[in-house]
Amino acid sequence: MDKPFAITLDIGSSRANKTGSWRTERAVYTNRMPPCNDGCPAGENIQAWLYEAEEGGDGYEHAWRTIMDDNPFPAIMGRVCYHPCETACNRAQLDEAVGINSVERFLGDEAIRQGWTVSVEVPPTSKRVLVVGAGPSGLSAAYHLARRGHTVAIKEAGPMAGGMMRFGIPKYRLPRDVLDAEVQRILDLGVTLQLDAKVTDLNALRDEYDAVFLAVGAQLGKRAYIPAGSAAHVVEAVSMLHDLETGGQPLLGRRVAVYGGGNTAMDAARTAKRLGASEAIVVYRRTQDRMPAHESELAEAEDEGVLFKWLTTIKQVDAGSLVVERMELDESGFPQPTGEVETLDADSLILALGQETDLTLLDGVSGLVVDDGVVTVGPDMMTGCPGIFAGGDMVPYERSVTVAVGHGKRAARHIDTWLSGAVPEPAHRPALATFDTLNTWYYTDAPRAHRPLLDKARRESTFDEVVLGLDESTALMEARRCMSCGNCFGCDNCYGVCPDNAVLKLGTPGEEYVIDLDYCKGCGICVAECPSGAIQMVPEEI
Questions:
Q1: Helix (H, G, I), strand (E, B) or coil at 325
Q2: CA-to-CA distance for 218 and 263, rounded, in angstroms?
Q3: Considering only CA atoms, which of 287, 254, 296, 293 is closest in space to residue 272?
Q4: Which of 192-196, 197-201, 315-319 has the highest mean pLDDT?
Q5: Using one digit for the tens of pLDDT, what is the confidence trace for 199-223?
Q6: Is residue 526 a contact partner of residue 493, using CB atoms and an 8 Å limit?
Q7: CA 327 to chain CA centroid, nearest Å
Q8: 3-class secondary structure, 491
Protein backbone atom coordinates (compact mmCIF):
# COMPACT_ATOMS: atom_id res chain seq x y z
CA MET A 1 0.00 0.00 0.00
CA ASP A 2 1.08 3.64 -0.35
CA LYS A 3 3.06 4.89 2.60
CA PRO A 4 2.93 8.46 3.92
CA PHE A 5 5.92 10.79 3.58
CA ALA A 6 6.89 10.27 7.26
CA ILE A 7 6.59 6.74 8.54
CA THR A 8 7.64 4.60 11.46
CA LEU A 9 10.22 2.11 10.18
CA ASP A 10 10.98 -1.37 11.36
CA ILE A 11 14.09 -1.73 13.46
CA GLY A 12 17.23 -2.24 11.34
CA SER A 13 15.89 -0.99 8.02
CA SER A 14 15.29 2.29 6.23
CA ARG A 15 14.75 0.86 2.77
CA ALA A 16 11.03 1.58 2.76
CA ASN A 17 11.74 5.33 2.78
CA LYS A 18 12.91 6.07 -0.78
CA THR A 19 14.56 9.39 -0.13
CA GLY A 20 15.47 9.79 -3.78
CA SER A 21 12.18 11.59 -4.36
CA TRP A 22 13.42 14.53 -2.27
CA ARG A 23 16.32 15.62 -4.46
CA THR A 24 16.66 18.48 -6.92
CA GLU A 25 20.24 17.49 -7.81
CA ARG A 26 21.91 14.13 -8.20
CA ALA A 27 25.48 12.95 -7.91
CA VAL A 28 27.22 11.68 -11.04
CA TYR A 29 30.58 9.96 -11.34
CA THR A 30 32.74 11.80 -13.85
CA ASN A 31 36.14 11.63 -15.50
CA ARG A 32 37.88 14.99 -15.60
CA MET A 33 41.07 15.74 -17.50
CA PRO A 34 44.09 15.38 -15.17
CA PRO A 35 46.34 18.44 -15.50
CA CYS A 36 49.39 16.22 -16.10
CA ASN A 37 47.72 14.62 -19.12
CA ASP A 38 46.59 18.02 -20.30
CA GLY A 39 50.12 19.39 -20.10
CA CYS A 40 51.89 16.53 -21.90
CA PRO A 41 52.90 17.47 -25.47
CA ALA A 42 53.30 13.78 -26.31
CA GLY A 43 49.69 13.10 -25.29
CA GLU A 44 50.49 10.45 -22.69
CA ASN A 45 47.81 9.12 -20.35
CA ILE A 46 50.06 9.89 -17.40
CA GLN A 47 47.53 9.36 -14.65
CA ALA A 48 46.62 5.91 -16.02
CA TRP A 49 50.18 4.61 -16.08
CA LEU A 50 50.98 6.09 -12.66
CA TYR A 51 47.94 4.24 -11.31
CA GLU A 52 49.26 0.97 -12.78
CA ALA A 53 52.80 1.63 -11.54
CA GLU A 54 51.45 2.07 -7.99
CA GLU A 55 50.79 -1.67 -7.89
CA GLY A 56 54.47 -2.55 -8.27
CA GLY A 57 55.51 -5.95 -9.65
CA ASP A 58 53.57 -6.74 -12.82
CA GLY A 59 52.08 -3.26 -12.63
CA TYR A 60 55.36 -1.83 -13.91
CA GLU A 61 55.03 -3.63 -17.22
CA HIS A 62 51.35 -2.65 -17.50
CA ALA A 63 52.34 0.96 -16.87
CA TRP A 64 55.11 0.77 -19.48
CA ARG A 65 52.72 -0.62 -22.07
CA THR A 66 50.28 2.21 -21.37
CA ILE A 67 53.10 4.69 -22.05
CA MET A 68 54.02 2.80 -25.23
CA ASP A 69 50.50 3.31 -26.56
CA ASP A 70 51.41 6.99 -26.91
CA ASN A 71 55.19 7.31 -26.76
CA PRO A 72 57.88 4.84 -27.89
CA PHE A 73 60.63 6.53 -25.84
CA PRO A 74 59.91 6.31 -22.08
CA ALA A 75 63.58 5.82 -21.13
CA ILE A 76 64.64 8.73 -23.36
CA MET A 77 61.84 11.02 -22.25
CA GLY A 78 62.60 10.22 -18.62
CA ARG A 79 65.93 11.90 -19.27
CA VAL A 80 65.45 14.74 -21.77
CA CYS A 81 61.82 15.86 -21.38
CA TYR A 82 61.43 19.13 -19.48
CA HIS A 83 58.28 17.68 -17.88
CA PRO A 84 55.55 20.31 -18.34
CA CYS A 85 53.31 17.66 -16.75
CA GLU A 86 55.02 18.37 -13.43
CA THR A 87 54.55 22.12 -13.86
CA ALA A 88 50.82 21.44 -14.25
CA CYS A 89 50.61 18.87 -11.41
CA ASN A 90 48.04 19.80 -8.74
CA ARG A 91 50.19 18.25 -6.04
CA ALA A 92 52.61 21.17 -6.45
CA GLN A 93 50.02 23.30 -4.63
CA LEU A 94 49.98 20.83 -1.73
CA ASP A 95 53.70 20.13 -1.27
CA GLU A 96 55.71 19.29 -4.42
CA ALA A 97 54.72 17.99 -7.85
CA VAL A 98 54.81 14.23 -8.41
CA GLY A 99 58.13 13.19 -9.96
CA ILE A 100 56.43 11.94 -13.11
CA ASN A 101 59.57 12.17 -15.22
CA SER A 102 61.54 10.11 -12.69
CA VAL A 103 58.96 7.32 -12.67
CA GLU A 104 58.78 7.29 -16.47
CA ARG A 105 62.55 6.87 -16.64
CA PHE A 106 62.42 4.02 -14.14
CA LEU A 107 59.79 2.23 -16.25
CA GLY A 108 61.73 2.82 -19.46
CA ASP A 109 64.97 1.52 -17.96
CA GLU A 110 63.16 -1.48 -16.48
CA ALA A 111 61.77 -2.32 -19.93
CA ILE A 112 65.26 -2.26 -21.45
CA ARG A 113 66.66 -4.34 -18.59
CA GLN A 114 63.94 -6.98 -18.83
CA GLY A 115 63.64 -6.95 -22.63
CA TRP A 116 59.97 -6.01 -22.85
CA THR A 117 58.80 -5.66 -26.44
CA VAL A 118 55.76 -4.47 -28.37
CA SER A 119 54.21 -6.02 -31.46
CA VAL A 120 51.86 -5.25 -34.34
CA GLU A 121 48.42 -6.61 -33.47
CA VAL A 122 46.57 -5.67 -36.68
CA PRO A 123 46.74 -7.17 -40.19
CA PRO A 124 48.90 -5.40 -42.80
CA THR A 125 47.15 -2.67 -44.77
CA SER A 126 49.38 -2.85 -47.89
CA LYS A 127 49.82 0.94 -47.64
CA ARG A 128 53.38 2.31 -47.90
CA VAL A 129 54.48 5.43 -46.02
CA LEU A 130 57.77 7.29 -46.39
CA VAL A 131 59.21 9.07 -43.36
CA VAL A 132 61.94 11.61 -44.09
CA GLY A 133 64.16 11.99 -41.04
CA ALA A 134 64.99 9.60 -38.19
CA GLY A 135 64.72 12.10 -35.37
CA PRO A 136 62.16 11.97 -32.54
CA SER A 137 59.22 13.02 -34.72
CA GLY A 138 60.03 10.72 -37.63
CA LEU A 139 60.71 7.71 -35.41
CA SER A 140 57.52 8.34 -33.42
CA ALA A 141 55.44 8.52 -36.61
CA ALA A 142 57.08 5.36 -37.97
CA TYR A 143 56.35 3.51 -34.73
CA HIS A 144 52.66 4.43 -34.63
CA LEU A 145 52.18 3.82 -38.37
CA ALA A 146 53.80 0.39 -38.11
CA ARG A 147 51.53 -0.57 -35.21
CA ARG A 148 48.58 0.39 -37.41
CA GLY A 149 49.69 -2.15 -40.00
CA HIS A 150 51.33 0.14 -42.55
CA THR A 151 54.66 -0.53 -44.26
CA VAL A 152 57.06 2.22 -43.22
CA ALA A 153 60.40 3.25 -44.70
CA ILE A 154 62.63 5.92 -43.11
CA LYS A 155 65.26 7.81 -45.07
CA GLU A 156 67.82 9.54 -42.86
CA ALA A 157 70.48 11.92 -44.15
CA GLY A 158 72.88 11.21 -41.28
CA PRO A 159 75.04 8.21 -40.43
CA MET A 160 72.97 7.23 -37.37
CA ALA A 161 69.35 7.42 -36.25
CA GLY A 162 68.14 9.72 -33.51
CA GLY A 163 68.39 13.20 -35.01
CA MET A 164 68.92 15.89 -32.39
CA MET A 165 68.52 13.27 -29.65
CA ARG A 166 71.89 11.95 -30.80
CA PHE A 167 73.60 14.95 -32.40
CA GLY A 168 72.22 17.73 -30.20
CA ILE A 169 71.96 16.17 -26.73
CA PRO A 170 75.31 15.17 -25.16
CA LYS A 171 75.94 11.71 -23.79
CA TYR A 172 76.00 12.94 -20.20
CA ARG A 173 72.28 13.72 -20.58
CA LEU A 174 71.30 10.79 -22.80
CA PRO A 175 73.49 7.67 -22.81
CA ARG A 176 73.71 6.19 -26.29
CA ASP A 177 72.91 2.63 -25.21
CA VAL A 178 69.51 3.88 -24.01
CA LEU A 179 68.90 5.74 -27.28
CA ASP A 180 69.98 2.74 -29.38
CA ALA A 181 67.75 0.33 -27.44
CA GLU A 182 64.60 2.36 -27.92
CA VAL A 183 65.32 3.04 -31.61
CA GLN A 184 65.96 -0.67 -32.22
CA ARG A 185 62.61 -1.53 -30.66
CA ILE A 186 60.93 0.53 -33.40
CA LEU A 187 62.95 -1.14 -36.15
CA ASP A 188 62.00 -4.55 -34.74
CA LEU A 189 58.39 -3.79 -35.74
CA GLY A 190 59.45 -4.09 -39.39
CA VAL A 191 60.28 -0.44 -40.02
CA THR A 192 63.10 -0.12 -42.55
CA LEU A 193 65.80 2.50 -41.99
CA GLN A 194 68.14 3.77 -44.70
CA LEU A 195 71.06 5.84 -43.40
CA ASP A 196 73.15 8.36 -45.34
CA ALA A 197 70.16 8.74 -47.63
CA LYS A 198 69.48 12.46 -47.88
CA VAL A 199 66.30 13.25 -49.78
CA THR A 200 66.98 16.09 -52.20
CA ASP A 201 64.00 15.71 -54.55
CA LEU A 202 60.76 14.81 -52.82
CA ASN A 203 58.77 14.84 -56.06
CA ALA A 204 60.89 11.99 -57.42
CA LEU A 205 59.87 9.74 -54.49
CA ARG A 206 56.21 10.61 -54.00
CA ASP A 207 54.83 8.15 -56.53
CA GLU A 208 56.46 5.22 -54.72
CA TYR A 209 54.46 5.79 -51.52
CA ASP A 210 50.85 6.31 -50.48
CA ALA A 211 51.76 9.07 -48.00
CA VAL A 212 54.82 10.98 -46.82
CA PHE A 213 55.71 12.35 -43.40
CA LEU A 214 58.40 15.02 -43.34
CA ALA A 215 60.38 15.22 -40.09
CA VAL A 216 63.54 17.08 -41.06
CA GLY A 217 65.09 18.47 -37.90
CA ALA A 218 66.64 21.88 -37.33
CA GLN A 219 70.30 20.93 -37.56
CA LEU A 220 71.68 24.06 -39.22
CA GLY A 221 73.07 26.53 -36.73
CA LYS A 222 72.08 30.18 -37.15
CA ARG A 223 74.93 32.59 -37.81
CA ALA A 224 75.36 36.18 -36.74
CA TYR A 225 77.63 38.79 -38.25
CA ILE A 226 80.45 39.38 -35.79
CA PRO A 227 83.65 41.01 -37.03
CA ALA A 228 86.45 38.48 -36.62
CA GLY A 229 90.18 38.51 -37.21
CA SER A 230 91.77 35.97 -39.54
CA ALA A 231 93.15 33.96 -36.61
CA ALA A 232 89.92 33.97 -34.59
CA HIS A 233 88.54 30.53 -33.74
CA VAL A 234 84.72 30.57 -34.12
CA VAL A 235 82.65 27.36 -34.20
CA GLU A 236 78.94 26.67 -34.30
CA ALA A 237 77.46 24.76 -31.33
CA VAL A 238 75.35 22.25 -33.27
CA SER A 239 78.26 21.47 -35.61
CA MET A 240 80.59 21.00 -32.64
CA LEU A 241 78.20 18.60 -30.90
CA HIS A 242 77.65 16.73 -34.18
CA ASP A 243 81.38 16.35 -34.78
CA LEU A 244 81.90 15.12 -31.24
CA GLU A 245 79.21 12.45 -31.72
CA THR A 246 80.80 11.20 -34.95
CA GLY A 247 84.21 10.77 -33.40
CA GLY A 248 85.73 14.22 -33.77
CA GLN A 249 87.68 15.93 -31.01
CA PRO A 250 87.06 19.68 -31.13
CA LEU A 251 90.11 21.75 -30.15
CA LEU A 252 88.65 24.61 -28.13
CA GLY A 253 91.52 25.72 -25.91
CA ARG A 254 91.59 26.49 -22.18
CA ARG A 255 89.22 29.47 -22.22
CA VAL A 256 85.96 29.09 -24.13
CA ALA A 257 83.15 31.60 -24.62
CA VAL A 258 79.64 30.56 -25.64
CA TYR A 259 77.32 33.12 -27.22
CA GLY A 260 73.64 32.38 -26.60
CA GLY A 261 71.15 31.64 -23.84
CA GLY A 262 69.28 28.46 -24.80
CA ASN A 263 69.69 24.82 -23.84
CA THR A 264 72.19 24.28 -26.65
CA ALA A 265 74.36 27.03 -25.16
CA MET A 266 74.31 25.20 -21.82
CA ASP A 267 75.23 21.92 -23.52
CA ALA A 268 78.06 23.59 -25.42
CA ALA A 269 79.53 25.18 -22.31
CA ARG A 270 79.27 22.01 -20.24
CA THR A 271 80.79 19.99 -23.09
CA ALA A 272 83.69 22.46 -23.35
CA LYS A 273 84.47 21.87 -19.67
CA ARG A 274 84.52 18.12 -20.25
CA LEU A 275 86.86 18.57 -23.20
CA GLY A 276 89.41 20.20 -20.96
CA ALA A 277 88.55 23.90 -20.86
CA SER A 278 89.52 25.43 -17.54
CA GLU A 279 87.03 28.25 -18.08
CA ALA A 280 83.73 28.28 -19.96
CA ILE A 281 81.73 31.49 -19.93
CA VAL A 282 78.28 32.03 -21.42
CA VAL A 283 77.71 35.50 -22.89
CA TYR A 284 74.04 36.48 -23.07
CA ARG A 285 72.58 39.83 -24.04
CA ARG A 286 69.59 39.71 -21.70
CA THR A 287 69.12 39.00 -17.99
CA GLN A 288 68.98 35.58 -16.38
CA ASP A 289 65.19 35.63 -15.94
CA ARG A 290 64.77 36.09 -19.71
CA MET A 291 67.06 33.22 -20.60
CA PRO A 292 65.27 30.53 -22.67
CA ALA A 293 67.35 27.71 -21.17
CA HIS A 294 65.49 25.58 -18.67
CA GLU A 295 66.22 26.12 -14.98
CA SER A 296 67.60 22.62 -14.47
CA GLU A 297 70.08 23.08 -17.32
CA LEU A 298 71.22 26.43 -15.92
CA ALA A 299 71.56 25.07 -12.38
CA GLU A 300 73.62 22.07 -13.49
CA ALA A 301 75.88 24.28 -15.63
CA GLU A 302 76.50 26.64 -12.70
CA ASP A 303 77.22 23.67 -10.45
CA GLU A 304 79.85 22.47 -12.92
CA GLY A 305 81.62 25.82 -12.87
CA VAL A 306 80.26 27.44 -16.01
CA LEU A 307 80.38 31.23 -15.73
CA PHE A 308 77.77 33.69 -17.02
CA LYS A 309 78.04 37.25 -18.27
CA TRP A 310 74.56 38.78 -18.45
CA LEU A 311 73.47 41.84 -20.46
CA THR A 312 76.47 41.50 -22.74
CA THR A 313 76.92 41.23 -26.50
CA ILE A 314 79.99 40.41 -28.58
CA LYS A 315 81.39 43.14 -30.81
CA GLN A 316 84.67 41.67 -32.11
CA VAL A 317 86.47 38.31 -32.12
CA ASP A 318 90.23 38.10 -32.31
CA ALA A 319 92.83 35.44 -31.66
CA GLY A 320 92.68 34.78 -27.92
CA SER A 321 90.19 37.51 -27.00
CA LEU A 322 86.72 38.96 -27.44
CA VAL A 323 85.55 42.55 -27.31
CA VAL A 324 82.17 42.69 -25.56
CA GLU A 325 79.74 45.53 -24.91
CA ARG A 326 77.51 45.95 -21.88
CA MET A 327 73.78 46.18 -22.61
CA GLU A 328 70.87 47.59 -20.64
CA LEU A 329 67.16 46.91 -20.94
CA ASP A 330 64.87 49.64 -22.21
CA GLU A 331 61.31 50.22 -20.99
CA SER A 332 60.01 47.43 -23.20
CA GLY A 333 62.60 44.97 -21.89
CA PHE A 334 64.66 44.96 -25.08
CA PRO A 335 68.48 45.15 -24.67
CA GLN A 336 70.14 48.35 -25.89
CA PRO A 337 73.88 49.03 -26.29
CA THR A 338 75.55 51.32 -23.77
CA GLY A 339 78.88 51.92 -25.50
CA GLU A 340 80.79 50.43 -22.54
CA VAL A 341 83.20 47.77 -23.82
CA GLU A 342 85.73 45.40 -22.29
CA THR A 343 87.99 42.60 -23.43
CA LEU A 344 87.58 38.96 -22.39
CA ASP A 345 90.24 36.27 -22.81
CA ALA A 346 88.91 33.45 -24.99
CA ASP A 347 90.73 30.90 -27.14
CA SER A 348 87.51 30.07 -29.03
CA LEU A 349 83.95 31.27 -29.43
CA ILE A 350 81.02 28.88 -29.77
CA LEU A 351 77.87 30.32 -31.37
CA ALA A 352 74.63 28.92 -29.94
CA LEU A 353 72.10 31.29 -31.49
CA GLY A 354 69.42 28.82 -32.52
CA GLN A 355 68.87 26.37 -35.37
CA GLU A 356 67.24 26.33 -38.79
CA THR A 357 65.88 23.58 -41.02
CA ASP A 358 67.17 22.70 -44.50
CA LEU A 359 64.03 22.76 -46.64
CA THR A 360 65.66 22.41 -50.07
CA LEU A 361 64.04 18.98 -50.50
CA LEU A 362 60.69 20.78 -50.87
CA ASP A 363 61.71 22.68 -53.99
CA GLY A 364 59.15 22.16 -56.71
CA VAL A 365 56.53 20.50 -54.48
CA SER A 366 53.22 22.15 -55.29
CA GLY A 367 50.91 23.42 -52.56
CA LEU A 368 53.46 23.60 -49.74
CA VAL A 369 53.63 26.92 -47.94
CA VAL A 370 56.89 27.90 -46.25
CA ASP A 371 56.71 30.90 -43.95
CA ASP A 372 59.68 32.22 -41.96
CA GLY A 373 61.63 29.00 -42.45
CA VAL A 374 58.89 26.56 -41.36
CA VAL A 375 56.21 24.61 -43.21
CA THR A 376 52.55 25.50 -42.70
CA VAL A 377 50.37 22.54 -41.68
CA GLY A 378 46.73 22.13 -40.72
CA PRO A 379 45.33 20.65 -37.51
CA ASP A 380 45.76 17.23 -39.12
CA MET A 381 49.50 17.90 -39.67
CA MET A 382 48.97 17.82 -43.45
CA THR A 383 50.71 20.39 -45.62
CA GLY A 384 49.06 22.15 -48.53
CA CYS A 385 50.02 19.19 -50.73
CA PRO A 386 47.59 16.25 -50.29
CA GLY A 387 49.26 13.19 -48.81
CA ILE A 388 52.31 15.06 -47.49
CA PHE A 389 52.38 15.60 -43.74
CA ALA A 390 55.02 17.34 -41.62
CA GLY A 391 56.00 17.69 -37.96
CA GLY A 392 58.79 18.34 -35.52
CA ASP A 393 61.22 21.22 -35.92
CA MET A 394 60.10 22.04 -39.46
CA VAL A 395 56.61 23.21 -38.45
CA PRO A 396 55.71 26.33 -36.40
CA TYR A 397 55.57 24.85 -32.89
CA GLU A 398 57.82 24.76 -29.85
CA ARG A 399 61.00 22.82 -30.55
CA SER A 400 61.58 20.00 -28.09
CA VAL A 401 61.86 16.22 -28.17
CA THR A 402 58.51 15.84 -26.42
CA VAL A 403 56.66 18.10 -28.85
CA ALA A 404 58.27 16.29 -31.79
CA VAL A 405 57.20 12.88 -30.45
CA GLY A 406 53.65 14.18 -30.05
CA HIS A 407 53.69 15.47 -33.64
CA GLY A 408 54.72 12.03 -34.85
CA LYS A 409 51.87 10.33 -33.02
CA ARG A 410 49.31 12.87 -34.17
CA ALA A 411 50.51 12.73 -37.77
CA ALA A 412 50.39 8.91 -37.75
CA ARG A 413 46.80 9.01 -36.58
CA HIS A 414 45.80 11.43 -39.32
CA ILE A 415 47.82 9.61 -41.99
CA ASP A 416 46.04 6.38 -41.03
CA THR A 417 42.67 8.11 -41.28
CA TRP A 418 43.59 9.71 -44.62
CA LEU A 419 44.78 6.41 -46.11
CA SER A 420 41.63 4.58 -45.04
CA GLY A 421 39.30 7.32 -46.25
CA ALA A 422 37.57 7.38 -42.88
CA VAL A 423 36.03 10.50 -41.40
CA PRO A 424 38.03 11.53 -38.30
CA GLU A 425 36.04 11.39 -35.10
CA PRO A 426 35.99 14.62 -33.10
CA ALA A 427 37.98 14.28 -29.90
CA HIS A 428 36.05 14.64 -26.65
CA ARG A 429 37.90 16.80 -24.17
CA PRO A 430 36.61 16.57 -20.59
CA ALA A 431 36.73 19.47 -18.16
CA LEU A 432 40.06 20.05 -16.42
CA ALA A 433 40.50 18.67 -12.90
CA THR A 434 41.61 21.83 -11.14
CA PHE A 435 42.99 21.98 -7.59
CA ASP A 436 39.75 23.43 -6.19
CA THR A 437 37.83 20.28 -7.22
CA LEU A 438 39.93 18.10 -4.87
CA ASN A 439 39.57 17.36 -1.18
CA THR A 440 43.23 17.28 -0.23
CA TRP A 441 42.55 16.63 3.47
CA TYR A 442 42.65 12.93 2.69
CA TYR A 443 46.15 12.96 1.20
CA THR A 444 48.97 12.37 3.68
CA ASP A 445 52.25 14.27 3.66
CA ALA A 446 54.63 12.62 1.22
CA PRO A 447 57.85 14.49 0.41
CA ARG A 448 59.04 14.19 -3.17
CA ALA A 449 62.07 12.03 -3.96
CA HIS A 450 64.62 13.87 -6.10
CA ARG A 451 67.01 12.02 -8.38
CA PRO A 452 70.65 11.87 -7.26
CA LEU A 453 73.43 13.50 -9.30
CA LEU A 454 76.78 12.09 -10.33
CA ASP A 455 79.71 13.17 -8.18
CA LYS A 456 80.87 16.64 -9.25
CA ALA A 457 84.48 15.60 -9.87
CA ARG A 458 83.39 12.94 -12.36
CA ARG A 459 80.99 15.34 -14.03
CA GLU A 460 83.78 17.76 -14.90
CA SER A 461 86.06 15.18 -16.50
CA THR A 462 83.82 12.51 -18.09
CA PHE A 463 80.73 12.20 -20.22
CA ASP A 464 79.12 9.81 -17.70
CA GLU A 465 75.41 10.38 -17.13
CA VAL A 466 74.84 13.24 -14.67
CA VAL A 467 71.26 12.74 -13.46
CA LEU A 468 70.83 9.23 -12.07
CA GLY A 469 67.64 7.19 -11.75
CA LEU A 470 65.46 6.18 -8.81
CA ASP A 471 65.64 2.70 -7.33
CA GLU A 472 62.56 0.50 -7.38
CA SER A 473 61.24 1.30 -3.91
CA THR A 474 61.67 5.07 -4.38
CA ALA A 475 60.03 5.01 -7.81
CA LEU A 476 57.10 3.07 -6.33
CA MET A 477 56.68 5.60 -3.54
CA GLU A 478 56.83 8.47 -6.04
CA ALA A 479 54.11 6.90 -8.20
CA ARG A 480 51.92 6.55 -5.12
CA ARG A 481 52.09 10.31 -4.51
CA CYS A 482 49.71 10.78 -7.47
CA MET A 483 46.34 12.16 -6.30
CA SER A 484 44.39 10.75 -9.30
CA CYS A 485 42.94 14.18 -10.02
CA GLY A 486 39.48 14.04 -11.54
CA ASN A 487 39.18 10.25 -11.71
CA CYS A 488 37.95 7.61 -9.28
CA PHE A 489 40.60 5.36 -7.74
CA GLY A 490 38.27 3.24 -5.60
CA CYS A 491 38.96 4.70 -2.16
CA ASP A 492 35.43 3.85 -0.81
CA ASN A 493 34.89 7.35 0.63
CA CYS A 494 31.58 7.84 -1.17
CA TYR A 495 30.47 4.35 -0.15
CA GLY A 496 31.28 5.04 3.49
CA VAL A 497 29.92 8.58 3.92
CA CYS A 498 26.55 8.30 2.13
CA PRO A 499 23.87 8.70 4.85
CA ASP A 500 21.28 6.89 2.75
CA ASN A 501 23.38 3.90 1.65
CA ALA A 502 22.68 4.99 -1.90
CA VAL A 503 26.19 4.20 -3.16
CA LEU A 504 26.46 0.60 -4.30
CA LYS A 505 29.90 -0.94 -4.57
CA LEU A 506 30.44 -2.89 -7.79
CA GLY A 507 34.20 -3.30 -7.71
CA THR A 508 34.45 -3.82 -11.46
CA PRO A 509 37.32 -2.12 -13.36
CA GLY A 510 36.15 1.18 -14.80
CA GLU A 511 32.94 1.13 -12.76
CA GLU A 512 33.72 0.86 -9.07
CA TYR A 513 30.39 2.28 -7.83
CA VAL A 514 26.89 3.11 -8.95
CA ILE A 515 24.36 5.40 -7.27
CA ASP A 516 20.92 4.01 -6.44
CA LEU A 517 18.72 6.94 -7.39
CA ASP A 518 15.79 5.56 -5.42
CA TYR A 519 17.67 6.56 -2.28
CA CYS A 520 20.05 9.36 -3.30
CA LYS A 521 18.47 12.56 -1.99
CA GLY A 522 21.11 14.83 -3.54
CA CYS A 523 22.78 15.93 -0.31
CA GLY A 524 26.20 16.21 -2.00
CA ILE A 525 28.20 14.69 0.85
CA CYS A 526 29.85 12.22 -1.53
CA VAL A 527 30.93 15.08 -3.78
CA ALA A 528 32.39 17.06 -0.88
CA GLU A 529 34.27 14.06 0.48
CA CYS A 530 35.63 12.69 -2.80
CA PRO A 531 39.42 13.20 -2.61
CA SER A 532 39.98 13.27 -6.37
CA GLY A 533 36.97 15.33 -7.45
CA ALA A 534 35.54 12.43 -9.45
CA ILE A 535 31.87 13.11 -8.51
CA GLN A 536 29.83 16.17 -9.34
CA MET A 537 26.29 17.36 -8.78
CA VAL A 538 24.03 17.93 -11.78
CA PRO A 539 20.47 19.32 -11.80
CA GLU A 540 17.77 16.68 -11.71
CA GLU A 541 15.71 16.37 -14.87
CA ILE A 542 12.05 16.84 -14.04
A1: strand
A2: 14
A3: 254
A4: 192-196
A5: 988 988 888 999 999 999 887 788 7
A6: yes
A7: 35
A8: coil
